[in-house]
Design brief:
By secondary structure, this protein is mainly β. The protein has one domain: Immunoglobulin-like (Sandwich), CATH 2.60.40.10. It has two helices and nine strands, in the order E-E-E-E-E-E-H-H-E-E-E. Strands 1, 2, 3, 4, 5, 6, 7, 8 and 9 form a nine-stranded antiparallel sheet that branches. Strand 1 (5-16) and strand 2 form a beta hairpin. The protein is globular.
């Protein structure tokens, strides 16, 4: 069994804007190099941007993963107003930011699931579409 290969972060956007906290979402796109498919039942990650804790992000729905193909895991999380104010988004656009995600993924097949720890570190350029088409370099551990 080979590890999935991280491809990109895309479809970043605000799902719900609030005064105390904002819900944001994005997709994590991976490639499954194996000749069998699985289901990603649950994913939970603590996400950091430039060493600032953004928050805990969860996968809202299970995702079917085909063999030898790309798949995307939708993630969403709440970011407090205090945390959001630590970022000067207009000055960050066009610059590289360091993203780190540490968490667990529950994957399985035929009703048998196991938890797998996943840790990601990588640099991403924030373009004007906020990570819609990032230039990224990173590693999965």
């Amino acid at each position: 069994m080979k590890e999935p290969e991280f491809r990109r972060i895309d479809n970043f956007g605000i799902k719900k804007l609030g005064l105390q906290e904002t819900t944001i979402g994005f997709n994590l796109t991976w490639f499954n190099p194996n000749n069998f498919g699985v289901t990603v039942k649950e994913a939970v990650f603590d996400v950091f941007v430039d060493s600032i804790y953004l928050g805990k992000f969860i996968q809202p729905n299970p995702v079917s993963v085909n063999s030898n193909g790309e798949f995307s895991i939708p993630m969403e999380g709440k970011v407090s107003l205090l945390t959001a104010l630590q970022f000067d988004i207009p000055k960050m656009v066009g610059k590289m930011v360091f993203i780190q995600a540490n968490g667990n993924v529950m994957v399985g097949k035929a009703g048998i699931f196991m938890n797998k720890e996943l840790n990601y570190k990588g640099n991403h350029r924030l373009d004007s579409d906020l990570l819609k088409n990032p230039a990224s370099t990173g590693s999965l551990q």
